[in-house]
Design goal:
transmembrane helix, BPD_transp_1_N, mainly alpha
Length: 327
């Protein structure tokens, strides 16, 4: 198990290094430059442009810039913003908790209804609940998130302001916890809707297959009810693949809030990332991308480590696989 943990952690480190390298090269290969944001009279002057590039360190060889950035990043220093000179790490530190809170609330709205509806549809397979679940999940996956966010903001935030006060604005948790939660309810529902639909369909499919397995059929033949068989036999078999899907989707909720944050004007890391790209602020854009990638990878690492806990057969498979390789 220790070797399995070490391999997974090493895999995350390698992927994180590859992501950082890829993002760094893509940003510097693009034709945009923060120098283009200078005043026209400065941008048009080659001498002035060269002086600004030298001051920003952009005239150094790309390899030197890359090695310096990686070395600083390993020490927790993501550089300073080219726009206002503030610390990138500080800006990410202020925006990241907001995105994590939004993603966490969206995960609650997505996971709990998905588990209830997925299990209920299997227990009522072929009935009205099952058919209704299929239609609802297809509809939820078909709605474009950006369009739904705009419509929800207009209908709920504008036409029914009493239902969700401050919709379209933001209040920090420290200022007013109740108002903070009310503000995040609407974007969290919009953000988690597609995840809810995909999780429901994944869990329903997994449970339906598990209920048709020999173990579940034997449990039913021994007099077990459908609910008892689902809870004690089928759920264990369906939990591992569903956990894999949930890890990817929830990772997207916690790190992929760019559109929702910009529509609802939530000062999270998604909005920070868009602002950085609009200003062609290399260090801030790169730092925000690296932070979201790290969250996604760490969350999936956590999901991998949960496998042996939710299903002991997975732990046996892991240790057996390792034993077979070392034999």
């Amino acid at each position: 198990m220790t070797n399995y943990l070490a391999r997974r952690v090493l895999g995350v480190v390698v992927v994180m290094f590859a992501v950082l390298t890829g993002l760094f090269l893509l940003l510097h290969a693009s034709p945009v430059s923060p120098v283009n944001q200078l005043a026209p009279q400065v941008a048009a002057d080659p001498v002035a442009r060269a002086a600004v590039e030298h001051r920003m360190g952009l005239d150094r060889p790309l390899v030197t810039q890359y090695l310096d950035y990686v070395g600083d990043a390993l020490r927790g220093d993501l550089g300073t913003s080219l726009y206002d000179g503030t610390s990138v790490a500080d800006q990410i530190g202020r925006a990241l908790p907001v995105s994590l809170e939004l993603g966490l609330i969206a995960s609650v709205f997505a996971v709990i209804p998905a588990v209830v509806l997925g299990a209920w549809s299997v227990l009522r397979r072929g009935g009205a609940v099952d058919h209704g679940t299929r239609v609802l999940t297809v509809l939820a996956m078909s709605l474009p998130g950006y369009w739904l966010a705009v419509v929800a903001l207009v209908v709920v935030g504008d036409s029914h302001p009493d239902l969700l006060p401050n919709a379209g604005g933001f209040v920090t948790f420290g200022e007013d916890p109740a108002a903070n939660l009310r503000v995040l309810v609407l974007p969290a529902i919009v953000l988690g809707l597609a995840t809810f639909a995909m999780l429901t369909r994944s869990l329903r499919g997994g449970l339906a297959d598990a209920m048709a397995s020999d173990h579940a059929m034997f449990a039913r033949a021994m007099g077990g009810s459908r609910l008892l068989t689902l809870r004690r036999v089928a759920l264990r078999g369906a939990l591992v693949p569903t956990l894999t899907v949930a890890g990817v989707l929830i990772g997207g909720l916690l790190s992929g809030t760019v559109l929702i944050e910009n529509v609802f004007q939530i000062p999270g890391i998604g909005q920070l990332m868009v602002t950085a790209f609009q200003r062609q602020d290399y260090p801030l854009a790169l730092g925000a991308c690296v932070a979201t990638s790290a969250i996604f990878l760490l969350l999936n690492l956590g999901v991998d480590l949960l496998y042996p806990l939710v299903d002991p057969r997975t732990a046996a498979g892991v240790t057996g696989d390792l034993a077979g390789r070392t034999a």
